[in-house]
Specification:
The complex is a heterodimer. By secondary structure, chain A is an alpha/beta fold. Chain A contains 31 helices and 19 strands. Classes of the chains: A alpha/beta, B alpha+beta.
Chain lengths: 800, 322
């Protein structure tokens, strides 16, 4: 039966009628064609929180969509649901970085805390629903949880109650009135990164603190949201910019420190206020220990040192303007040279000259395969057609990757400019941004940026006064990793399941709606304006012989300073991990670097001195992929990592071809056996045979590369597979093969007993504690809590 | 246009896909997801051939030849990969080709077919199947150790079907006329025979509810086994059993009456999609990946065509009583 939270109906019929009316409004707004099914379902779900059957029945009546199509499409994309969820949705990120930092324990902890049964995902009072999501793209803050629109970073399983409390406080605060904005001459500027990562670590609170402090002190400052600095490990981070151009950077600040910082830079409005604040400040200093570690007392070098080494060694093309450019200030973008490349192309170059320039630059597609971008443009340009499309592929689905999200959120105008140049070069006049549903912020920013460009004449009819016309729209993906594959992406825009098609025909010949279509990755497009404005020669100076330019990587996992980085091709993995990333977290030894997400492989530490480019990575059995770099330490189990990725691809397989649908599942079966100590050496051989066969025979690129995590770990870490056959997992990651044990070092402090969420440790003051293996969930909280290191993981097998 | 097939240069039109060209030239390329003159999309990968130029395995059902193309259709590598795709499909195929009881009967009777007639009330046909094998002699059931009952799948649910009792009673009923009856069981040991595997406890409960014919027989034998390409190719490839543990999300023994004589058993479906691509607002895919299934919405059943059964490469879609 239809329900509506805002109103009560006299009868169920009335409720249905109301639902039909709301559904009709959506249909009127979006359309009735078959290819509009995904936007229609997205709008219905936004309206009703799920897809109610009465609304769907109305869809059958009023649109071209039939039942077969609806079942096919709505069940393919993970975004759509047929049952109502709770009021708030908890999304636990299980991306690679979060996985290696224990995301599954966080998920279990939430379910325990909210008293959800094994098979339920919604609380009895319909307040919360929980789900695992592929990757929220905040890998530097792993493990990450998103509740509604609020992101929480570094969530510990033992602290989920605090997260929930914080969220509830946030909700009640949101309901209160917002601070007024004053419009007087600003004394300076406070710049805050407002990306997902920054928000996850509390930038929103810092922003509120800035607003509050300004009001209290009577200071007029402009608060400016800026693009991602990339130093995601050092957030919240604010820059204070003075009218004379001096900028002071404060990383890792707390809301309590904001006032202090502002007072340091700006004069409060009146003497009285100054006095009052001085007094309060003194009191604060005495009464909170937070100010003992006063951020202003630290010397500049100490304050920003780790950031500077993080930012050294990077080279900015895609992320030019990082940290000082407002993503949505088109005038600022123009002032910094924006749209010069587009103007140069439109007014000074023929279509073919643009293509030749890109070809000469040696730019290769950043989406994974590394196909020469200029060549791709040539193929599309060579096809004569009344209609052509250019699509920006922003369906970044790799767990552990967030480059495209940041580029779209922070540099939307640069990506749009790149797309416009591409469209001009290949002769297309319709562009589409395909952005995955998990990136709502990117969708908002691109929409706003597109509107600005239309207004300023950089898009639309007669772009910059020329004959070139270009209209761009946004298509939101609905949650399917496979749609990153070109042909599947096209299917999805056409309102079908995201089934890849056999190529040929290539999209360049027959793509979207059968027309020639160019599909480029976000990062590829973000490099175009540089290539055109500075010229191919200049671009070729960066990078290696066969991989020119820079590459944006999302550095995450067991590394001290994760974040978004842009380095010249040819930088070694060790430089990235040691210099930019500041080494392995916790002083552990580097074991491997996982590149390319589920299609990539694990490169062992001894090969990390190799220069990173497309070909070197391929030779090592990994791929560049879209650019996720997940650092793995000695405490990560490589079999578990392989299983993690296969689990991901098994869930995300479209199901079309036999090798991917069944083959990957059979590989996963074997890996599950390995991780529970039930496999034999024969299984390992079969696993390898399967992996090699799938690599040869799967239908699409994603299927063919899905066995890479297994093949690369078999190649470099075969010994670990053999140990698992013998029932040993050295790292203790495979839960069925280890148990927790209390050693003789236990002093009976009861700390473990008190923190255990599953009550597996009986409370025994001054006695050696015992762990009940049956109820223990191996969350490891007790190990972290114990001050005497008296809890250890031991293999189950030896003790049998 | 000239192409090279296994080192032999051949002339082709270039207008049709490789599988069609090769079939015309007398090559026997197996395929499940392809049917002549029907809409299809490459998915089963049983028809693959090797493109020697780049070493890629390509589905011949959806690839057009190009001038000078060099392909391999029968190398060890190609045959091994085809075999693997069959094995993978079989590992997610929860069905018996033959009923276990019929496979083990020492007297060479076909209890499965006898039970089928019996449950339909066609006792004369049922009896004729017995007399065809043993004549009017006494059935040897009373002295038999009854492997049929020991292996009976119903026995794993609750209690086995009383095969001997039913057969003996039928044989003794001389009032029943002799009529032509057909036994479909193939008891050739060289023919591949798929095995259903074990039921889960949930499935057992469901089966108890669902199967309550006169004999209580689960009718394990597949009705589509004579036309089944999956079985024929598996036999040809010399497959005895799949090397993978059978785990499956398919609803075992579920039988859906679609329209007229057209029946659908999801557990036997290989997800080739032929019925999906060749029916309007009818059969459709649901979910994705390993748990993807072909379903038919209730409202669409009435406008399906019986002729769809012809397209199905397995016994998942079939016409009852054929």
């Amino acid at each position: 039966m239809a329900e509506c939270k805002d109103c009560k109906f006299a009868s169920p019929e009335e409720a249905v009628q109301a639902m039909v009316r709301r559904t009709d409004a959506i249909i009127d707004r979006i359309g009735t064609r078959r290819d509009q099914i995904i936007p229609l379902l997205q709008a219905l779900q936004a309206e009703f929180n799920y897809l109610p059957s009465d609304a769907l029945n109305r869809l059958y009546e009023r649109t071209e969509i039939d039942r077969a199509q609806l079942i096919s499409v709505s069940s393919f994309y993970s975004q759509f649901r047929m049952v109502p969820y709770g009021k708030h949705i908890i999304k636990v990120c299980i991306g690679t970085a979060c996985h290696v930092k224990g995301a599954n324990n966080v998920y279990d902890a939430f379910k325990r805390e909210l008293k959800m049964g094994e098979d339920t995902i919604t609380t009895a009072d319909q307040q919360y629903s929980i789900e695992k999501v592929a990757c929220l793209g905040c890998c530097a803050l792993a493990p990450v949880v998103q509740i509604d629109n609020k992101i929480f970073g570094h969530v510990q399983p033992g602290r989920v109650n605090e997260v929930l409390a914080e969220f509830e406080e946030y909700v009640s605060q949101q309901q209160q009135a917002q601070a007024e904005e004053e419009h007087e001459q600003p004394q300076g500027e406070v710049r805050l990164g407002m990306e997902n990562c920054c928000q996850a670590s509390g930038t929103a609170e810092v922003r509120e603190a800035v607003i509050k402090a300004c009001k209290e002190l009577g200071i007029q400052v402009r608060i400016k949201p800026i693009s991602c600095v990339g130093a995601c490990n050092q957030v919240p981070l604010i820059d204070v910019a003075m009218p004379d151009g001096a900028i002071t950077r404060y990383p890792n600040i707390k809301p309590q420190e904001v006032k202090e910082i502002l007072l340091h830079h700006f004069k409060p409005a009146s003497r009285l206020r100054r006095l009052k604040n001085a007094v309060f400040n003194q009191i604060d200093t005495f009464h909170t220990d937070l100010t003992w570690e006063n951020i202003l007392w630290k010397p500049e070098a100490e304050r920003t040192q780790s950031i500077n080494t993080f930012l050294d060694g990077q080279h900015r093309i895609s992320t030019e303007g990082y940290g000082h450019m407002n993503p949505l200030d088109i005038d600022e973008y123009i002032k910094l040279g924006g749209f010069q490349a587009l103007q140069k192309a439109l007014t000074g170059m023929k279509r073919d000259e643009v293509i030749q320039e890109v070809l000469a630059s040696g730019l290769r597609g950043r989406g994974g395969g590394g196909f020469p971008t200029g060549r791709k443009w040539q193929l599309v340009a060579a096809n004569d057609s009344d209609k052509k499309y250019v699509i920006c592929n922003g369906d970044e689905g790799d767990p552990g990757a967030f480059m495209d999200r940041i580029l779209l959120e922070s540099y939307p105008l640069r990506v749009i400019e790149g797309l416009a140049i591409a469209a001009y070069a290949v002769g297309a006049n319709e562009g589409i941004f395909y952005i995955r549903a998990e990136y709502p912020q990117a969708v908002i920013r691109i929409r706003k940026a597109l509107a600005m460009c239309m207004e300023k004449g950089y898009l639309g009819d007669h772009v910059m006064g020329t004959d070139f016309c270009l209209n761009i729209r946004v298509f939101e993906g609905a949650g399917a990793f496979v749609c990153g594959e070109e042909t599947a992406l096209i299917g999805s825009i056409e309102g079908k399941r995201g089934f890849p098609h056999l190529r040929p025909p290539y999209p360049a010949q027959a793509g979207l709606f059968g027309k020639p279509t160019l599909i480029n990755n976000v990062e590829t497009l973000s490099q175009i304006s540089y290539v055109i404005s500075r010229g191919a020669e200049e671009y070729r100076k960066v990078g290696t012989e066969h991989s020119r330019g820079t590459k944006v990587f999302a550095l995450a996992g067991k590394v001290n300073h994760g974040g978004l980085i842009e380095v010249p091709m040819g930088t070694t993995l060790r430089q990235i991990v040691e210099k930019i990333g500041g080494g392995v977290e916790g002083g552990e030894k580097l074991k491997a670097v996982q590149t390319g997400g589920p299609s990539g492989g694990c490169i062992p530490a001894e090969l990390c001195d190799a220069q990173v480019d497309f070909d070197a990575l391929n030779q090592m059995g990994a791929i560049m992929g879209s650019g996720g770099l997940v650092v793995l330490s000695e405490s990560n189990c490589m079999v578990d990592v392989a299983r993690y990725f296969l689990n991901f691809t098994c869930d995300e397989s479209c199901g079309k071809c036999t090798f991917c649908r069944v083959g990957i599942r059979r590989m996963l079966d074997i890996l599950n056996k390995l991780c529970t100590g039930k496999a034999t050496m024969k299984d390992v051989d079969l696993l390898e045979e399967l992996a090699n066969s799938i690599k040869k025979s799967a239908l699409c690129g994603l299927g063919k590369t899905a066995p890479n995590p297994v093949l690369s770990t078999l190649r470099y870490f075969r010994q670990e597979y053999e140990e698992h056959v013998q029932g040993i997992c050295r790292t203790g990651s495979c839960k069925d093969m280890v148990k927790l044990q209390v050693t003789e070092d236990c002093v009976g402090c009861t700390k473990c007993a008190r923190c255990c969420p599953s009550e597996a440790i009986p409370f025994a003051p001054y006695q050696k504690h015992e762990i009940n293996v049956e109820t223990c969930t191996l969350c490891g909280l007790c190990m972290d809590e114990c001050d005497y290191n008296a809890i250890v993981k031991v293999p189950v097998k030896e003790n049998k | 246009m000239k192409i090279i097939v296994n080192d032999k240069e051949l002339e082709v039109s270039g207008q049709e896909t490789l599988i069609e060209e090769l079939n015309k030239l007398g090559y026997d390329i197996p395929s499940l997801c392809y049917a002549k003159d029907a809409r299809h999309q490459a998915s089963c990968m049983v028809c693959m051939v090797k493109n020697v130029a780049n070493g890629q395995m390509i589905p011949s059902c959806s690839t057009y030849p190009t001038e000078g193309m060099h392909i391999e259709t029968d190398s060890e590598e190609v045959l091994a990969l085809r075999q693997m795709s069959l094995e993978l499909l079989l590992s997610d195929h929860r069905a018996d080709c033959e009923a276990p009881c019929s496979l083990v009967c020492p007297a060479k009777l076909d209890p499965a077919q006898i039970m089928l007639y019996y449950d339909k009330g066609q006792k004369a046909e049922a009896r004729s199947l017995i007399t065809k094998v043993i004549g009017e002699n006494e059935v040897p059931c009373s002295t038999c150790k009854a492997p049929c009952e020991k292996i009976c799948r119903r026995g794993t649910v609750d209690e086995h079907v009383s095969i001997r009792e039913i057969v003996t009673a039928l044989a003794a009923d001389t009032s029943l006329a002799q009529v032509p009856a057909h036994s479909k069981a193939v008891l050739d040991k060289n023919v591949f025979t798929s095995k259903l595997g074990r039921f889960t406890s949930v499935e057992k409960e469901w089966l108890k509810e669902e199967y309550h014919d006169a004999s209580r027989c689960l009718h394990c034998a597949c009705e589509g086994r004579e036309k089944c390409k999956l079985r024929a190719y598996s036999t040809k490839a010399g497959i005895k059993s799949t090397r993978y543990g059978v785990s499956s999300a398919l609803p075992v023994k579920e039988q859906i009456k679609v329209v007229g004589k057209l029946c659908y058993e999801p557990a036997k479906c290989v997800r080739c999609g032929l019925c999906v691509y060749n029916s309007e607002d009818g059969f459709t895919f649901q979910h994705r990946g390993f748990v993807m299934q072909v379903v038919i919405p209730e409202e669409s059943k009435s406008h399906m065509q019986e002729s769809l059964a012809r397209l199905c490469p397995t016994g998942a879609l079939y016409l009852e009583d054929e």
